[in-house]
Design goal:
mainly alpha, 2 domains, 6 helices, about 70% helix
Length: about 120
């Protein structure tokens, strides 16, 4: 039976947490708070950069950013797992909803929110 990357990561994280007896600390609320901390750490890497600089990171900075992105991803996977949310389904559903909110013919090349057109 083939498993996909997301399932493998979820299972690895479960094992990691269980081995350390951390589940007691990882409520959805606490995980969401940790996610926000990690998102802030990710944003901090780009603070004061120009648009161009943010697109051309030095190798060491890129590695640091990759680790922060991984931290954000880990917390998202853990929150979904704790709540029994099928993350793959939710992402696909949200993409479909966004496609309805932002039809190509109305928004192509525009950064306006769907309530503005």
């Amino acid at each position: 039976m083939q498993t996909d990357f997301l399932d493998e990561v979820r299972d690895e994280l479960r094992e990691f947490v269980e081995a350390r007896d951390w589940a007691q600390f990882q409520s959805p609320k606490n995980l969401a708070m940790a996610l926000m901390v990690e998102a802030g750490e990710l944003a901090e890497h780009f603070q004061w950069m120009t648009e161009a600089q943010s697109r051309q990171l030095e190798p060491e900075k890129e590695k640091e950013v990759a680790h922060e992105i991984a931290d954000v991803f880990v917390y998202l996977v853990r929150i979904a797992d704790q709540l029994g949310i099928d993350l793959k389904h939710s992402v696909r559903e949200k993409i479909a909803l966004n496609a309805q909110k932002y039809p190509v013919e109305l928004v192509r090349g525009s950064a306006k929110k769907y309530t503005e057109y």
